[in-house]
Design the sequence.
């Protein structure tokens, strides 16, 4: 299929030389007749070829009817990217796209030598690519002349706003000529992007290159639920199972990147790191190592989630769950770019299963469950790879014939095959042990939480109780993590003074026991064990033998008190004898008899002296220690004791 005629001839020849037979949806949509010369607000998924798209879109604005640029002076186009890596990548793409036009492309990015950039701007450049902070610095210092600008492109505009570059963008756009073209590219168009477009664009044409329901059609998503303690083992086994040419492993923090890269390096993987704390030279070297094959795995933070394009990147692993669905899509978009197929594996701990499922639902992705590859599965793939290696099918060339004959003559075929096998196995890292069948069959399925599920369940005890301020809200996550189960597998929890007991569903009891025997409770000084020893505290009869409690009798103060016969009838079933309700033979008075009740002696009554109430005193306002003597004369007023506390000195 030939390229459209709306593409300028020098750019079309560069696309053909690069192997472009067809255009991606965003590239085809942006070169239509109705987009010519207009401001554009374009939304397209990551990895859809946006760099080539806006390169083709601004070419008529910069060149007009000509095919080559004249002498370089003030810049004609300004391209703004959120990160250094993306800006350098945009510059690299435009260099081959505009190679036949003779365009000079300068970069202005943070972390590079600003003096070198100023000298390049002084020599002249038709296109300038940069990051917002460094571009603003050059404009403020007068090094970047904006007077001849014809087009401004904002790539990944939503990411620039998220990173706090709004003020810098407004400053740059205010400094540009009003008659310029403004092309704004964003994966999504939230309200801040729409406001930015309304303020700095003129009658912008909205271009939606892809349908939201068709995101990442070239990426196969897999959700891998693993015990929290086996997360790193699952990452290692996933790398060994897929054997991708290039892989990016995303972690949430810089410390996580350091720890994971050190673990992989110790296991024999060729690893580089990419995070915000690295210098620009270190980040550039890391990406170059991935491009030229010196490294196969890049462990990175979200700094690499936008715009990074690596060749033969077939696998993306989310070692830590992303913060939201947008970050998930941008991370995953590093693979499956420009028509290539890719695989994305989301590794989530068991206790964060629901959070992972909600994120995938928000992203509207079709995800399949995948258990962590076991050591047996990886060794089987090793075996198949060794037996079907391409090097074994190559014919013996003339230069090798003499040495091959000598090897066969000196050593047996079995010895040569064994040496080849040992060499192959030594070059492959050994797999890790992971728990088999630790997750259900489908993502999102929930076991019903009812009493029938806990019929025949097993009771366990944990050595924390009321004295340790144990509460179900923090006991339940600890038990789920220790036993590699979800909360639906935990039944009743009963807390005592020094220990607590809890019930585990019958179908999860064996796996729970194996997990605690292998990993313990995960907390220092806390142990979990089955309640099955002699003399152990039992939780009561099985659920099938438990009878519901009877009706609760409430006390009515107005009801007549039952007699002795009624009490015998009521409590006779409790194992009491009729004699228990007879009057004791102690000579006490019987109310049924017609005798008078004996009076108690006077000494049984407490003697309380009578106190006559004194009339209220009319001497109000007098101190409590003032009064009258017995003869009516006023008593001598007592003096209030002096306060012997030292007086405070006044503050000066």
Sequence:
């Amino acid at each position: 299929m030939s390229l459209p005629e709306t593409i300028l001839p020098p750019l079309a020849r560069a696309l053909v030389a690069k192997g472009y037979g067809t255009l991606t949806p965003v590239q085809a949509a942006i070169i239509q007749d109705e987009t010519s010369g207009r401001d554009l607000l374009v939304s397209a998924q990551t990895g859809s070829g946006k760099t080539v798209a806006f390169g083709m879109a601004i070419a008529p604005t910069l060149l007009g009817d000509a095919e080559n640029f004249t002498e370089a002076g003030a810049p004609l186009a300004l391209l703004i990217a959120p990160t250094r890596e993306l800006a350098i990548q945009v510059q690299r793409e435009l260099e081959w796209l505009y190679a036949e036009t003779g365009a000079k492309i300068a970069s202005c990015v943070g972390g590079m030598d600003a003096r070198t950039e100023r000298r390049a701007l002084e020599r002249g450049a038709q296109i300038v690519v940069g990051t917002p902070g460094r571009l603003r610095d050059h404009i403020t210092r007068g090094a970047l002349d904006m007077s001849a600008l014809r087009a401004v492109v904002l790539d990944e505009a939503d990411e620039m706003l998220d990173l706090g570059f709004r003020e810098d963008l407004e400053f740059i756009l205010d400094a540009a000529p009003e008659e310029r073209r403004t092309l704004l590219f964003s994966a999504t168009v939230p309200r801040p992007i729409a406001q930015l477009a309304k303020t700095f664009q003129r009658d912008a044409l909205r271009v939606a290159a892809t349908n939201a329901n068709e995101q990442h059609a070239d990426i196969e998503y897999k959700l891998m639920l693993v015990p929290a303690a086996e997360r790193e083992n699952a990452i290692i086994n996933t790398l060994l199972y897929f054997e991708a040419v290039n892989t990016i492993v995303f972690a949430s923090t810089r410390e996580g990147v350091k720890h994971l890269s050190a673990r992989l390096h110790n296991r024999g993987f060729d690893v580089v790191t990419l995070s915000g704390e690295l210098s620009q030279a270190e980040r550039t070297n890391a990406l170059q190592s991935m491009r030229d094959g010196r490294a196969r795995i890049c462990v990175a933070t979200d700094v690499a989630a936008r715009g990074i394009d690596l060749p033969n990147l077939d696998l993306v692993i989310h070692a830590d769950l992303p913060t939201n669905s947008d970050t998930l899509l941008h991370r995953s978009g590093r693979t499956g770019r420009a028509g290539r197929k890719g695989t994305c594996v989301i590794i989530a701990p068991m206790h964060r299963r629901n959070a992972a499922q909600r994120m995938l639902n928000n992203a509207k992705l079709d995800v399949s469950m995948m258990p962590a590859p076991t050591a047996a599965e990886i060794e089987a793939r090793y075996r198949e790879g060794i037996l079907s290696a391409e090097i074994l099918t190559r014919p013996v060339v003339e230069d090798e014939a003499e040495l091959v004959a000598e090897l066969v003559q000196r050593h047996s075929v079995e010895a040569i095959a064994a040496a080849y096998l040992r060499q192959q196995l030594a070059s492959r890292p050994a797999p890790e042990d992971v728990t088999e069948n630790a997750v259900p069959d489908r993502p999102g399925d929930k076991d019903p939480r009812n009493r029938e599920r806990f019929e025949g369940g097993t009771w366990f005890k944990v050595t924390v109780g009321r004295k340790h301020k144990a509460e179900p809200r923090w006991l339940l996550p600890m038990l789920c993590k220790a036993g590699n189960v979800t909360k639906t597998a935990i039944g009743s929890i009963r807390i005592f003074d020094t220990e607590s007991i809890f019930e585990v569903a019958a179908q999860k009891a064996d796996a729970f026991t194996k997990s605690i025997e292998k990993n313990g409770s995960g907390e220092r000084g806390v142990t979990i064990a089955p309640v099955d020893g002699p003399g152990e505290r039992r939780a009561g009869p099985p659920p099938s033998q438990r009878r519901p409690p009877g009706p609760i009798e409430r006390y009515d103060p107005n009801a007549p008190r039952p007699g002795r016969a009624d009490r015998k009838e009521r409590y006779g079933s409790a194992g009491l004898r009729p004699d228990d309700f007879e009057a004791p033979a102690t000579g006490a008075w019987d109310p049924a008899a017609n005798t008078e009740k004996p009076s108690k002696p006077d000494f049984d009554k407490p003697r309380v002296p009578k106190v006559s109430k004194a009339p209220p005193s009319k001497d109000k306002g007098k101190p409590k220690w003032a009064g009258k003597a017995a003869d009516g004369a006023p008593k001598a007023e007592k003096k209030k004791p002096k306060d012997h506390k030292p007086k405070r000195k006044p503050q000066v």
The mean pLDDT is 78. The first strand starts at residue 40 and ends at 43. Residues 216-373 form a domain with the Rossmann fold fold (CATH 3.40.50.300). Residues 50-63 form the longest helix (14 residues).
